[in-house]
Amino acid sequence: MDEPDAAAGQGRAGAANSVAGGPTGGAPETDNTSRLVLQCAAPIFLQGLGGLAHLSGGDRLTSLLTLAILEANVRHVVRDPVLALRYARFESPPPDELRRPVSVRALAESLSLPYDAARRRVAALEAAGVCVRTARGVYIPNSALTTEANHQALIQGYQAMEALAADLVSIAPGFDLTGGAPCPAEPSPDGAERLAVRVGVEYVLRFAERLAAVAGDVGQGLVLLAILHHNYTPVFSDPVLARRHGGLSDPPPDELLAPVSVLALAKSLGQPFETTRRQVNRLIRGRRCVRVAGGVIVSAQAMRTALARRALLAHVGDVQRAYGALARLGLTFGGNATPSAPDD
Questions:
Q1: Where are the domains of the chain?
Q2: How far apart are CA 282 and CA 274, in angstroms?
Q3: Is the pTM of this model over 0.90?
Q4: pLDDT at 80 exceeding the cut of 70
Q5: Over 90: is that where the pLDDT of 227 sits?
Q6: Which of 110, 216, 242, 291 maximizes the CB count within 10 A of its CB?
């Protein structure tokens, strides 16, 4: 049995702030970029979870649990500027004795997952040698994090941070990536990629929590995000439509959206068709999406709800908080000088 402890997500939103010296300003009450920001982030978020197949067996929920364990294990490292920079490089992960175990129950609560679903997935990770169980919970040891596969995943995670910043600067040049965060006079040492990925993990987990709040649980949230991204692709491929429908107040009308089939969703998410079908049906019953000719869409009406609007604005703040935290440590993105990932 796991001992009860604080929820794995407790303090997550403030972890990057603590290491950076305070929160960024966050998203405004109105904006003209929140949908653009989400559209840029969605494929990187979903592909990033798929990139953890070497740890999770390709299951995206297991990938999220793996990230939640990692984040909880080293949250105190991220909050400490000295430790954060000491263990910032690919070749210098925090030692096992610094990792703080987290309970399965706390992990389940942080991701709005049923306890049994979290327990089964953590047990599979333990059986595969990805995590270690102690009396206080589980942690992921360095032996699972110093493999070549994980090295490549870290490189891809760092490149994803670069790609998201570049996409946002390209499609929304007026977007303040760091929320006005000041940069230090001296940049952080080259090779601080592990630090960037660690802050990126916190962002991914906050993103997952937003999705769970909107969709009911994180599994349905991943499906909802995949639907929305597919629906919006033709709209945001057109610069005129992207500017017109990129903000909070004017979601794209339903006739501009590209429906997606359940089969295509299942393939894109790498999960069984029946699982995806059940999740889509629950989303339809909850009025999060609707069935139309050719598949399903997240309608403009669904995107006008107060819950959806709050999630869009909060996500903008999450993006700025992550890049702002890194900027305060001297790691800048989006056209500024950035450390290079090591050679393969």
A1: 14-215+306-328
A2: 12
A3: no
A4: yes
A5: yes
A6: 110
